[in-house]
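Title: Comparing notes on inverse folding

I've been comparing how different people in this forum approach sequence design from structure. To keep things fair, I'm posting one structure and asking everyone to reply with a full sequence. Here's the target:
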């Protein structure tokens, strides 16, 4: 028996919580991995494609064939934008403060709301208020310390660009997922991202494996499972039902989540504001969810798996 709309929404919210837990492991794992940032981004996508390939190519070839030219092109565009997000945000971490980079890169829900408005979709006041409140929580835990240094300002600009790119990735994914299964979409998207990042690594001379130890490969595998397969893939799964506003706002929970994980795993003491910030972000997310619940958008039946 198919779940009711309310039941399906509860399942999506549960899966979203798992996804946020997965992406929250991303920054601590990257910090603990002895490899170039762009190479880490390449391997997490390439390994994800490798993990998805047996399932998609053996059991989901029909879904791939039914995607259609428009869906394939949009999935590839999402992959390029995801590569752009990684390519802008990860280098910014070495140019500006981690606090500024994190705060600016997580402006995603603001840009998502702005883009939707520019496309003619009216966003209720609760969505704007919830996104602003949630982002205030991010500022509480990370802050933005703009520097007069030219290098730091360039890093801030890259991080901001990464946040805008993430908004495009979420919106494209929401559109494709209306008619395409999660596995087919993520396979095409991640494969495109991996190819783009491979070219960038080769051009920039980033090492793709030379000198990597066993611990590095294990951490890359863990990053792929946690942040890519459980994180991004589940986000792509739930964005169809929850919508881009709820999904992108929930991603803000990655900031305090990463801080708390780093405290437990890496021994990095989280800022005192991490705990109240978590409550503020959750309050903002609750406003967005409440607004979306009051104006549900009809969707076609869930395609495939």
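Reply #1:
Here's my take.
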């Amino acid at each position: 028996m198919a779940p009711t709309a309310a039941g399906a929404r509860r399942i999506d919210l549960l899966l979203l919580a798992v996804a946020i837990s997965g992406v929250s492991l991303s920054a601590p794992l990257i910090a603990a991995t002895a490899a170039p940032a762009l190479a880490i981004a390449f391997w997490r996508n390439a390994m994800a494609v490798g993990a998805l390939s047996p399932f998609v190519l053996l059991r989901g070839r029909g879904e791939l064939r039914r995607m259609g030219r428009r869906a394939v092109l949009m999935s590839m565009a999402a992959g390029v934008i995801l590569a752009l997000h990684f390519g802008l945000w990860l280098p910014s971490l070495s140019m500006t403060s981690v606090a500024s980079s994190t705060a600016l890169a997580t402006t995603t829900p603001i840009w998502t709301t702005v883009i939707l408005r520019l496309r003619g979709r009216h966003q209720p006041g609760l969505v704007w208020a919830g996104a602003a409140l949630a982002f205030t929580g991010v500022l509480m835990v990370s802050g933005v310390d703009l520097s007069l240094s030219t290098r730091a300002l360039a890093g801030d600009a890259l991080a901001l660009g990464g946040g805008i790119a993430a908004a495009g990735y979420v919106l494209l994914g929401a559109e494709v997922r209306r008619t395409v299964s999660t596995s087919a979409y993520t396979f095409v998207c991640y494969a495109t991202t991996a190819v783009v990042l491979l070219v960038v690594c080769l051009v920039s001379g980033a090492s793709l494996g030379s000198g990597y130890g066993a611990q590095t490969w294990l951490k890359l595998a863990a990053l792929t499972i946690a942040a890519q397969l459980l994180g991004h893939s589940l986000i792509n799964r739930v964005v169809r039902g929850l919508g881009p506003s709820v999904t992108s706002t929930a991603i803000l929970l990655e900031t305090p989540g990463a801080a708390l994980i780093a405290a437990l795993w890496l021994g990095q003491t989280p800022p005192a504001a991490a705990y109240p910030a978590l409550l503020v972000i959750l309050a903002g997310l609750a406003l967005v969810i409440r607004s979306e619940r009051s104006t549900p958008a009809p969707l076609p039946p869930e395609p495939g798996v």
